[in-house]
Write a structure and sequence with these properties.
This protein has about 500 residues and is mainly beta. The protein is built from 1 helix and 36 strands. It has a 36-stranded antiparallel beta sheet that branches. β7 and β8 form a beta hairpin. It is rod-shaped and about 130 Å long.
Length: about 500
């Protein structure tokens, strides 16, 4: 593309370089006649006409040469040559050497070994150092199979700028660019787009209303309503930059990535994408949105990464100050790993999960979901479930153990299995919801049935020890299991609170 356009500009500049005032010379004609066509004295030249002005040769079937020898009209098979590699063809030519202007009309072709420019009319003006067409033109490259079509084309020799306006279409083997206005700067080999622009390739579709592409570095930047569409993804941002050679791109400000396969939207103010790794990173107020039929999951983190693992399965990682909000589920931790294939989620570094009145903590929390609802959770170490019973009197049901497996039905915790060092504290209530006492129980393994956030049954698997105490018999510390910590203050109450972090540094 760079060679294609720069050669064109160089070709046209040969006709527009500053020249001394010299008369047009007649090199050959088979017949000479005087014409009464004009009040001026005009000589009619017929048959194999050859003219010369400085280093420019002109050929035609016939011509009018006026007395001043500074103006010529040429007709039929018009051909202009400068050097050995450039030829301009047309059916009609007006050439005024004093005014430094050439007007070539009808079936105009500028031909080089590298390219062919076709138009119906081209004006070359040495006074303004400009050549242009305004009735449609086509440029075809013979070296890289590029074709450029536009209604108007302007070539500024002094600034080395080329402008193409109205219905501009550049077609290459790799892509097609359609734009309202396109500018090419031969000084830095940069193509600029102005107005609605579409770039279509086998890999993606790009839209912008302002931007540029450097044909040497293969770097591009797209502005104003810019977005990129691939097979299953959509990328938007106020600015999208792309390095074709490195396979690296960035999107900045109001970034959104829509994945229609995984049904997620990732937003932020900075996105980085790496083609070779097939990965994306999003940061700066990053937010993941995953709609479901009944609700929507929101997740905030300092950084999101989406990439394929060794098995080729898509993984999402969230790093640092992760907050999760869904109407019936909230969470907080340092890091998250989510596998799209099986909808499994892992929470790392002091994770907390809230479901209804339940607060769930552990060293790691593993969650299996289906259609946005939790099916099962697994905590391999330091499992702790806390449920607020009476906030005014700081009463909490508690379940603790080494390892925990929880079963959910419609996002409601219904069964808990504790393996190793099982401990519980729960408040007993009568049929009128009045407290009758507090039960402390221990067993190496426990199976707990829960209904409406209340402990309904406890099955002691090994070496049970359980005691029901009156409400006022145990002091405050005895009503808390070791490691108890109610952290309701960290619970996001809405998706608007996801960007507020209150927990400090979790990586200690």
């Amino acid at each position: 593309m760079r060679l294609f356009l720069s050669v064109l500009l160089c070709s046209i500049s040969l006709f527009t370089t500053a020249q001394k005032k010299e008369k047009i010379q007649i090199l050959n004609a088979e017949e000479f006649r005087y014409s009464e066509k004009s009040k001026k004295d005009a000589q009619r030249l017929i048959g194999n006409v050859q003219l010369k002005h400085q280093d420019v040769l002109m050929f035609c079937d016939s011509a009018y040469m006026y007395k001043s020898s500074s103006y010529v009209e040429a007709f039929g098979n018009v051909r202009i040559k400068q050097g050995d590699s450039l030829t301009l063809y047309g059916d009609y030519l007006q050439y005024v050497s004093d005014k430094k202007k050439a007007d070539i009309q009808r079936n105009v072709r500028l031909v080089r070994p590298d390219l062919v420019l076709s138009t119906d009319r081209m004006i070359m003006d040495r006074n303004t150092n400009m050549a242009y067409y305004e009735n449609g033109g086509t440029i075809k490259s013979t070296t890289d199979n590029n074709t450029l079509v536009s209604k108007k084309g302007y070539f500024h020799m002094k600034s080395n700028m080329m402008y193409f306006k109205e219905e501009v279409i550049l077609t290459s083997p790799e892509y097609t660019i359609s734009s309202d206005t396109m500018r090419y700067n031969t000084n830095n080999s940069e193509i600029s787009f102005f107005g609605p622009t579409e770039i279509v390739s086998k890999e993606n579709y790009i839209y912008c209303e302002n931007g540029y592409y450097n044909t040497i570095t293969e770097r591009s930047i797209f502005y104003k309503n810019a977005y990129l569409l691939s097979e299953n993804k959509e990328l938007r941002g106020d600015t999208i930059a792309y390095d074709r050679e490195k396979g690296y791109g960035e999107a900045r400000s109001n970034v959104s990535i829509i994945d229609t396969v995984e049904n997620i939207i990732v937003k932020g103010n900075l996105a980085k994408f790496f083609e070779q790794q097939d990965s994306i990173e999003v940061s700066k107020k990053a937010l993941l949105v995953q709609p479901f039929e009944e609700d929507t999951l929101f997740m905030h983190a300092k950084l999101f990464r989406v990439f394929p693992n060794k098995e080729g399965k898509r993984i999402l990682q969230a790093f640092y100050q992760v907050n999760i909000y869904k109407k019936d589920l909230q969470g907080s931790c340092d890091s998250v790993a989510y596998a799209f294939t099986d909808s499994s989620l892992k929470m790392f570094y002091s994770p907390i999960l809230w479901s209804d009145q339940n607060q769930i903590t552990g060293s790691i929390i593993n969650i299996n979901t289906s259609n946005g609802k939790i099916d099962q959770l697994f905590i391999p170490e330091n499992a702790f479930i806390t449920s607020e019973v009476d906030s005014n009197k700081s009463r909490y049901n508690q379940i603790k153990g080494k390892q925990l497996t929880g079963t959910f039905i419609q996002n409601e915790l219904r069964k808990v299995f504790i393996e190793g060092n099982g401990q519980t504290i729960y408040y007993g209530q009568d049929e009128n919801q009045k407290f009758i006492g507090v039960n402390r129980a221990e067993s190496s393994d426990l199976l707990i049935g829960i209904k409406s956030n209340d402990i309904e049954t406890i099955t002691f698997m090994n070496d049970p020890d359980a005691t029901l105490y009156p409400l006022n018999e145990l002091d405050v510390e005895e009503l808390k299991l070791g490691g108890f910590k109610w952290q309701g203050a960290f619970r996001p109450e809405s998706n608007a609170e996801l960007f507020t972090w209150r927990r400090g540094n979790l990586r200690k």
